Amino acid sequence: MAYKIGDECISCGSCAGTCPVEAISEGESHYEISEDTCVECGACAAGCPVGAIVAP
Ligand code: SF4
Ligand code: SF4
C-alpha cells in the first residue's frame, strides 16, 4: 500500500521535494506516487495545499 494523490491535485509540485525516498513524480494529469517506492511516512500529505494526498 502507498499514499495516493487524487484529482484535486493542482500540480504545484511542492510534495515532490518533501518525499525522503523520491516516490513522487509528475504524471500525465497530476502528480503521482510510486506504490513500490512509498514508505508511508506521511510527510507529503501534510504539505499539500489542497489536501489531495490521502493515506492508504
Ligand atoms: Fe514519500 Fe512519505 Fe509521501 Fe510516501 S508518504 S510518497 S514516502 S513523502
Ligand atoms: Fe499536487 Fe498537492 Fe503535490 Fe501540489 S502538493 S503537486 S497539489 S499533490
UniProtKB/TrEMBL annotation:
Q: What cellular component GO annotations does this protein have?
A: cytoplasm
Q: Which residues form the 4Fe-4S ferredoxin-type domain?
A: 1-28, 29-56
Q: Which SUPFAM superfamilies match?
A: 4Fe-4S ferredoxins (SSF54862)
Record carries keyword Signal: no
Pfam hit, one: Fer4_21
Record keywords: 4Fe-4S, Electron transport, Iron, Iron-sulfur, Metal-binding, Transport
| One example GO MF annotation | 4 iron, 4 sulfur cluster binding
- Cofactor entry: [4Fe-4S] cluster
Q: Which domain of life is it from?
A: Bacteria
Q: Which PROSITE patterns match?
A: 4FE4S_FER_1, 4FE4S_FER_2
The yes or no answer to whether the keyword Nucleus is present is no
What does this gene product do?
Ferredoxins are iron-sulfur proteins that transfer electrons in a wide variety of metabolic reactions.
Name of protein: Ferredoxin
Originating organism: Anaerovibrio slackiae
